[in-house]
Amino acid sequence: MSVTVRVPAKVNVQLAVGAARPDGFHDLANVFLAVGLHDEVTATPSAGGLRVTCAGPDAAEVPLDRTNLAARAALALAERYGRDADVHLHIAKDIPVAGGMAGGSADGAGALLACDALWGTGASRRELLDICAGLGSDVPFALVGGAALGIGRGERLTELEVGGTFHWVFAMARRGLSTPAVFREFDRLAEGRDVPAPVASQDLLDALAKGDPEALAATVSNDLQPAALSLFPELADTLAAGRGAGALAALVSGSGPTTAFLARDTETAEVIAGALRASGTCRAVRVASGPMPGATVL
Ligand code: ATP
User: Which CATH code is given to the segment(s) 166-290?
Assistant: First the structure.
């Protein structure tokens, strides 16, 4: 017997970052949208204890030891319920690794839900969300999906109304960017400046609620984008290629280096995707829409 959970990637339509706190973390106002790029995590009983395997184009970059967020999720649930994490977790990986789309976080939420179902722990939603928050600031959203505002380190979530489907194109870069390195660059660029407290844009929340892509395009923002571009200047060429092909908005996704392009409709999304592929400025291009449901048992 095994349980498979499907779990989406995210794009941040707003990522407002405050000044570094004394503990080194940053306060965020983070508007997440789950999009149709998915990993699948399958949990199967394993007599030999915890084991992680991974398949997919980026599989070689995924750690298979206990630092994998899927493994950490299984261990956290096993510990809470006083049982052994005797499970094989297989990750079918389609979300780019180190791409700013929260792929590792998705696997953490997926493994948690899969083990909960496999072991019949019957944990409440609240308990699962608590475990997710302990694993990382993007993990609770992968469980919830849809669209949500995250405050604090991003993990205190309020679900948001979305009035329609948004069409996106994602360009995967030829190398990854480490999230901590991007935050360090943000701090370096912010030195000597007053960084305002992060707040969600009401215009952006209204655009999501209306399902209006033009209004959303006018309000998307990512405070980490200058830092990502500073560490990875070639991303400016990818952003320009997508804008030139008719994207309503072009931005770095989260800490990058994946770039995200908002399209008016599916046809325009395909045109933008074609132009990005032809531009030679990225490794791969995918069309995906959102919002999508969070982690779901198949
Ligand atoms: P975020 O958008 O949340 O900042 P990301 O999408 O940029 O994250 P991830 O793909 O989640 O980045 O992974 C970042 C690093 O985490 C990887 O380089 C890898 O070493 C480690 N990692 C741990 N577990 C996983 C996992 N299940 N899948 C991918 N990477 C993982």
Answer: 3.30.70.890
